[in-house]
Amino acid sequence: MPVKRRELISYRAVHGFYLLCEGRRPSVYTDGIGMVPIKRQREIDRITANWRCGQAGFDPEF
Questions:
Q1: Pairing mode, if any, of strands 27-30 and 35-38?
Q2: Phi, psi at residue 16, to the nearest 5°?
Q3: Which CATH number do you get for residue 45?
Q4: HEC readout, the chain
Q5: pTM of the predicted model, to two decimals?
Q6: Rounded distance between C-alpha atoms, residue 48 and residue 50, angstroms
Q7: In terms of residue numbers, what domain contains 35?
Q8: Which tens digit of pLDDT belongs to each residue from 13-57?
């Protein structure tokens, strides 16, 4: 089951991430230490969403 992009963004905001730049391909979010891209598609595969959460350093929720 895919994850909505806005759900992933709000989950990251809870962990202190904010939008760094909005590009043609991914939007880049940062917490001041690391940067993690989020695809610009409305729905993101659950496996990819969990992988990106792990890459950001917090437990995957999806």
A1: antiparallel
A2: 95, 10
A3: 3.30.920
A4: CCEEHHHHHHHHHHCCCEEEEECCCCEEEECCCCEEEECCCCEECHHHHHHHHHHHCCCCCC
A5: 0.84
A6: 5
A7: 3-56
A8: 999 999 999 988 899 999 999 899 998 999 999 999 999 899 888
